[in-house]
Design the sequence.
């Protein structure tokens, strides 16, 4: 009888623990969804100022961080993130501009991750998601790194899938930064080289 009582007690504890963690997961998913909605609404309200290059230029390196974070955080609003980083690389230190832009871009991608964490059922049976899910399940780290490094339109889906698959958040962010930073450094350096080329060309033409 004593053993049966202990067994029943353990089973009851397990059931309560399962209910607790299930409810906790639901709360976390709701919180993640609210964060994504809040960011999207905030960006929409300030959309008139987000596309102004002078706004970011006045903030210097912080401007590179801001525009990259905003561009990565939303695909709804047309924010010229790459163009701004390219232009800032021509007037500021391109390495610092690229690092700032890469860090901002990496942090901005967290909205996609949170959206996937909170809303997997939205795209669960769609072919693009299923294909990305296979890639992420087999080579998640490599997939995230390559899509962060190479300019392409698929990283938002990769971030969403990473969240849906519960890919570790810290790992997602670190790999994302490893890809985004060299990518944006390259963009900023290209901006610096292009302006130097234009200046030399004008000197030859006018000189």
Sequence:
């Amino acid at each position: 009888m004593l053993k049966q009582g202990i067994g029943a007690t353990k089973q009851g504890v397990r059931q309560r623990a399962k209910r607790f963690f299930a409810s906790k997961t639901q709360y976390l998913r709701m919180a993640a969804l609210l964060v994504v909605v809040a960011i999207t609404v905030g960006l929409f309200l300030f959309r008139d100022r987000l596309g102004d290059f002078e706004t970011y230029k006045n903030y210097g390196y912080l401007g590179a961080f801001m525009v990259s974070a905003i561009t990565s955080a939303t695909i709804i609003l047309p924010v010229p993130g790459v163009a701004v980083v390219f232009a800032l690389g021509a007037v500021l230190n391109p390495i610092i501009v690229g690092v700032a832009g890469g860090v901002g871009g990496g942090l901005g991608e967290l909205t996609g991750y949170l959206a996937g964490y909170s809303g997997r059922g939205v795209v669960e049976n769609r072919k693009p998601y299923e294909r990305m899910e296979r890639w992420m399940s087999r080579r998640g780290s490599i997939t995230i790194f390559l899509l962060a490094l190479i300019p392409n339109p698929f990283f938002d889906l990769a971030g969403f899938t990473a969240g849906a698959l519960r890919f570790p958040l810290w790992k997602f962010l670190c790999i994302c930064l490893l890809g985004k930073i060299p990518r944006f450094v390259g963009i900023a350096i290209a901006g610096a080289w292009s302006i130097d080329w234009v200046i030399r060309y004008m000197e030859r033409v006018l000189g």
In short: The longest helix spans residues 2-45.
